[in-house]
Amino acid sequence: MTKTLKSASKLEKVLASGAFAVTGELGPPRNAKAKEVEDKAKFLLGNVDSVNVTDNQTAVVRMSSLAASLIAQKQGLEANMQMVCRDRNRIAMQSDILGAAALGINNLLILSGDHQTFGDHPDAKNVYDLDSINLIRALRNMRDEGRLMSGQEIPEDARPRLFIGAAYNPFADPQDYRVLRAKKKVDAGVDFMQSQCIYDMDRFRKFMAKAVDMGLTEKAYFLAGVTPLKSLGMARYMKNNVPGITMPDSYIERLKGVPKERQASEGIRMACEQIDEFKETKGVSGVHLMLVEWEHMVPTIVKEASLLPRPQV
Amino acid sequence: MTPDAALKIEWEPKIIAFCCQYCAYSAADMAGSMRLQYPTDVEIVLIPCTGRFDVILALKAFENGADGVYVAGCLEGNCHFLDGNIRARKRVGMLKGELAAIGFGPERVEMYNLSASQGPKFAEIAREFTERIAGLGPSPIKRPADAGNPGES
Amino acid sequence: MIIAERKPIEEIKTFVMGRKRVLVVGCRGCVTVCNAGGTKEVGILASLLRLEAAKDGEGTVVDELTLERQCDPEYIEELSELMGGRYDCVLSMACSIGPQFISRRYPGESVFPALNTCFLGGALAHGIWAEHCQACGNCVIHKFGGLCPISRCSKSLLNGPCGGSAGGKCEVSKDIDCVWHLIVEKIESEGRMGEFLGIELVKDWRPSRDGGPRKIVREELLK
Questions:
Q1: Which of C118, C153, C185 is at the close of a domain?
Q2: How high does pLDDT run on average in chain B?
Q3: Is C218 contained in some domain?
Q4: Closest chain C residue to A118, measured at CA
């Protein structure tokens, strides 16, 4: 993997140094209160190398990811601003990319975005002018070729020097195609990839082995997604209701064997065991911790999983 | 005479003329009764009005070995069915585009206008178009072998 | 009806390239009415392809067939004896539903769309078709003097016209009538301006494509 840095990103420096990276996640509030972002940021500061700031996740209206990213950066975190293709066309997305880079954002994670029928405005029109793969390509061209999609040139010293991220999902269907789709993202120019929450380790191992075989992990950094289970109820819910996530029965059984009040700490322990394995898994460059509305547990999990201290780069 | 020119003379172009009964067809009659000379390679197809002309007729003619096709209708403004000749001109224009797109030579199809009293004009058109096709050579669907062997067409 | 137009012959040539047995399949539905893919257009395309192939000295066979409709499995079934190796290229001259139905019914066949499916519209005159509907799934034209701002306004405005309307034309092109200009004129001429001044509230786009691909199931019609 080339060690010439492509961006001003701290996350990129950590990954390039060969250290096992840790990223977190922060969901902006459904209001205009900066303090809510600041409060969540406190739990993440010093515990992660970069924090994903979601873009109207699950199609629910929230403070813009750019604004919340900037608030988080003021707190000393490095934001990984998410951008979904659902709400903006290519004009708005390129414009927001230029604005984000100008304001000091270093990482941009590109997603298709959940369909608006899942959110609080199911009656909205959707956009999907570009899909995630085309947006990755557009951003790569803006950064590396200095061209907007129109072909308009961006001067050398004015290009958005963003570290480009995307998601990969080893668990969605059609199964065999998943690694090929990840390859498309790599080919489109992605620098790092974060996965959906992993529970089915067997399937993840198979996916990763294939990705390594295909040389994908030489071209982009792959981070493994971790969401500790808070309870047996959550495990059951995810098994039955969340598309694109597979939950092996062994997880359910293990939580069943633990009294309710100790299920959360058991969930954290299970996540730490996963993280230990990821550290040893060929092709995995770090973990992405998704503790949505459970941000205060981040310090605990990074400590228990021996992910501290975070490297200073 | 060069061998090329010899070949061209040896090969007889096959031309189909779709002629409106009210003008071009009558003009052809007149040309005949006036004993005007015009190329015998032109085969006339009588149509009630050039408005009856359709691109598929020309395409079928080409498929069956025509080297050129033209449509001859009344002078513009004098169509017995008001605008059959205007429509025919547009169809010929559209056909030229399609033929160009398949590399067939859009010059192999043309639209002419004349009146029933213009026998000499009919002969002139027949000569002019025949010369054009002779200059273009055989239809591109004819193999060089066929082209040099007039007896077989 | 669905308005379509034939793809440029240059593009169709790329579909046929290297294939020796071609079947051009027309449709007697909408595309016959809008002169894009009926028996006649099938004949023209097939003839052009034969001439093109013959010109290049290729012994390509181009056959023609027009089905009653290509958006109905019953008629797609009529192809069954012709499929399964007899042709190495099927060019459908229906709207895009046709080639989708054919390739679903006959997997393994190389099926290509010979038409571009353009819009839902009507004929303004012979040879002129215009978009009149976007199939948004919740018709509101009665609120706009019988004109559809969803499909006929470039911005789908519910409270137009925008500042770009000039001389009854849309800012996008002077070939486009500003439908909002027409709506206002119509409402005025009917003396209904008074009842037209309220704000037309946002549209629910769920019944449109935005809510995901749509399907209608009519229980009483099912076998």
A1: C118
A2: 89
A3: no
A4: C211
Asked if A116 reaches chain C (Cβ–Cβ under 8 Å), the answer is yes
Looking at the structure of chain B, the number of domains it has is 1
Closest chain B residue by Cα to residue C50: B63
Distance from the Cα of C70 to chain B's closest Cα (Å) equals: 24
Residue linked to tokens 């090929």:
A180
Q: Which helix (H) or strand (E) segment is A36 a member of? A: helix A34-44
- Does C172 reside within a domain? yes
Q: Where are the domains of chain A?
A: 10-304
Q: What is the DSSP string of C132-165?
A: EE---SS--GGGGTT--HHHHSTT--SS---TT-
Count the neighbouring beta carbons within 10 Å of the beta carbon of residue B61: 21
Write the CATH number of the domain with boundaries A10-304: 3.20.20.220
Residues on chain B touching C128 (C-beta within 8 angstroms): none
| Residue C107 and residue C27 share a domain | yes
CATH number of the domain enclosing C73: 3.40.50.2300
Q: Chain A: residue nearest C156 by CA?
A: A125
Tens of pLDDT along A191-219? 999 999 999 999 999 999 999 999 999 99
In a domain, residue C124? The reply is no
Domain span holding position B112: 28-134
Q: Which domain holds residue C58?
A: 2-118
Question: Residue holding tokens 């000091």?
Answer: A104
Q: What are phi and psi of A101, to 5 degrees?
A: -65, -40
Q: Which residues of A touch C205 (CB under 8 A)?
A: 123-126
Whether B145 has a pLDDT exceeding 60, the answer reads no
- How confident is the model at residue B148, as a pLDDT? 46
Does the distance separating the beta carbons of C47 and B56 come in below 8 Å?
yes
Please state the rounded mean pLDDT for residues C186-212: 93
pLDDT surpasses 80 at B10: no
Torsion angles phi and psi, residue A46, rounded to 5: 85, -10
Which DSSP string do the residues of C20-67 spell out, in sequence order? SEEEEEEESSHHHHTTSSSHHHHHHHHHHHHHHHHHTT---EEEEEEE
Q: Which residues of A fall within a CB distance of 8 Å from C203?
A: 123
Q: Tell me if there are at least 3 CB pairs under 8 Å linking chains A and B.
A: no
Is the pLDDT at B149 greater than 50? The verdict is no
Q: Look at residue B123 and tell me if it is in a domain.
A: yes
**Do both C113 and C7 map to the same domain?**
yes
Interface test with A, best of C151, C204, C205 (most A CBs within 10 A): C205
Query: pLDDT tens digit string along A148-171?
Result: 999 999 999 999 999 999 999 999
Of C13, C44, C54, the CB nearest to B141: C54
Q: Residue B144 has what pLDDT? A: 58
Cβ pair A122:C208 closer than 8 A: no
**Residue B69 covered by a domain:** yes
Contact between chains at C9 and B101 (C-beta distance less than 8 A): yes
Which one, of B63, B149, B70, lies nearest residue B102 by Cα?
B63
Query: Would you call C124 exposed, middle or buried from its count of C-beta atoms within 10 A (0-12, 13-18, 19+)?
Result: exposed
Subunits in contact with chain B (3 or more CB pairs closer than 8 Å): C
Residue A176 pLDDT: 86
What residues of chain B lie within 8 A of the CB of C50, using their CB?
63
Using the Cβ of C204 and the Cβ atoms of chain A, whether some distance falls under 8 Å is answered with yes
Give domain status of residue C220, yes or no.
Answer: no
Q: Which of A288-297, C43-52, C59-68, C113-122 has the lowest mean pLDDT?
A: A288-297
Of C51, C85, C118, the position where a domain reaches its end is C118
**Is pLDDT of B9 > 90?**
no
Q: Does A122 touch chain C (CB under 8 A)?
A: yes
